[in-house]
Amino acid sequence: MTKNPDPASKPLPTLADVASRAGVSTATVSRCLNAPAQVVEETRKRVLQAVQDLGYSPNFGARALAAKRTNTVGAVIPTMDNAIFARGLQAFQEELGRNGITMLVASSAYRPELEAEQIRALVARGADALLLIGHDRDPAIYRFLEARGVPALIAWAYDETAGKPSIGFDNRRAMAGLAAQVIAQGHTRLAAISAEQACNDRARERMNGVREAMQAAGLPPEGLHLIEVPYSVDHGAEAMGQLMALSPRPTAVICGNDVLAVGAMQKAQEMGLDVPRDVSVTGFDDIELARVVTPQLTTVHVPHRDMGRQAAQLLKQMIGGTPMAQSVALQTELRLRGTLGPPPG
Amino acid sequence: MTKNPDPASKPLPTLADVASRAGVSTATVSRCLNAPAQVVEETRKRVLQAVQDLGYSPNFGARALAAKRTNTVGAVIPTMDNAIFARGLQAFQEELGRNGITMLVASSAYRPELEAEQIRALVARGADALLLIGHDRDPAIYRFLEARGVPALIAWAYDETAGKPSIGFDNRRAMAGLAAQVIAQGHTRLAAISAEQACNDRARERMNGVREAMQAAGLPPEGLHLIEVPYSVDHGAEAMGQLMALSPRPTAVICGNDVLAVGAMQKAQEMGLDVPRDVSVTGFDDIELARVVTPQLTTVHVPHRDMGRQAAQLLKQMIGGTPMAQSVALQTELRLRGTLGPPPG
């Protein structure tokens, strides 16, 4: 392991090498790798031992050419930090695994140019299909995928007007439902902390949802004091500091996700404010963080695991050549916990 | 996007197609892709537009053959859930990105047979090198990687006796340091909640550290009441329920990581116990979760970002053919916060 020999200096083991070492025909080796159930246990063990001893790995390039498949699916997510995508991807991977498909993930750090590069790398590495997050991206990427015949499914967002197959939920409607609850408590001075909205349709639609609920309740949407920050607890806290310095102070702070909301709560408590007596705070996603803070966070529950599992099933069909009939909308649910109450006074 | 045409039915665009569309020579296209700084801005834009329009992607197979590189590095981590590996990988990826290398990640769900499969898939897809977590795995995997000439670096664990290049920290010594602090507070009835220790040297070494500290303080290590559970907040809570039902009750619960510790804290508080007045709880990792709970968690801080960044630099050297002189040990730090106090009474 401490050497990195020139690959050319050591010829790679071939199927014939494995057959010779195991004392079987190449057809038997091939059967072991592709239809092991058809091979007697003892022979299979001998072949697998030879495979391991020689460090043989089937030539995926050649196999892909024959089967037009590599049994690899790529997923490009905006961040691995924080748990928002982790849980959904875990379910996505489990379901793919049941179908013998390996998932490879790349994380774009919310940078569109990096996402484009990673999509190209995954296609170049032979991904049969891709899972992408949200609809916002250069149309050239979709043209590239179409030219390559690589199907892509968009998750974490549902937009039937976007013309691309997607599985997700209506971020705008879900957030409008939560904001309506906040307003129903009597709040009129609303503020919001959002993740950066450029290239992030989820963040944008959630804020549109807040404004929609305000409009419906007769509150002028332009009265919403909105701060946009990068995605982290610390940035949520910093934005909260700015909002709590406003006069008059907002009585409810609607956050674009749980991570920002937890930062906002922390800051309020550090400033000696009681949540929700002095100020209400809400989140979105219902990740683990939402339930470990005191009081527990009022938020929108997203069916992460269900989405991941169904996305895998849909992609498998798409790889098989069956186009998706229509995008799939999943339901979200309000989780009314301890951080939402009536305004002070 | 709704069709998955037979790849054979649509020939892939070639370098010559791109050159023809952009009205330049194939040498210019090649220069644009490999040494863009040498090409005039306007020409470069025209070529990149043609690349996008045609959905051209360089043939990595042929390039790899020529350069013996694919500029892809694979990382296999045990879980994407929770933030333990996320932050380190983010730094790893940023540093690789600065060197034009793309990172692809697979998550093994703590299953060794899945890890082996993913390592083979990444090598088959042309990974130049691999980042692996911890030392525990079938020696056949190391033989396979050596046969393929693919260097691998082990992270999140430091063990100079293991004979494999690694970057990480001494889990045993770090945990022994924390346990010594717990004992110094006067605790004698210690319990521990650990992640599953099979195939997880980090978990095992941490518990060895607890026993080492007990021994050094004259407490019989076999008196440690240890519960092993899967890695989740809920499992930490469940284990805490069992420990708090013991008679006499342990006065300090040392947890193998922050996630389990946060679950344990929650459970104690649900049972009406005050942390740390009635029972002390400690974690390990210092992830975001540790600072958002009340009181904040006493834990061991791990230099995740520093480890990721240095791992990328080391792997780059290994890809270049420079063997690692010796494994790298990083320092951890105790974070004494609110969940550790003297025993009751």
Automatic annotation (TrEMBL), chains A, B:
Q: What are the protein's UniProt keywords?
A: DNA-binding, Transcription, Transcription regulation
Q: Which SUPFAM superfamilies does this one have?
A: lambda repressor-like DNA-binding domains, Periplasmic binding protein-like I
HTH lacI-type domain residues are 13-67
Which terms does the record give in the GO molecular function aspect? DNA-binding transcription factor activity; transcription cis-regulatory region binding
List the Pfam families.
Answer: LacI (PF00356), Peripla_BP_3 (PF13377)
This chain's protein is named: LacI family DNA-binding transcriptional regulator
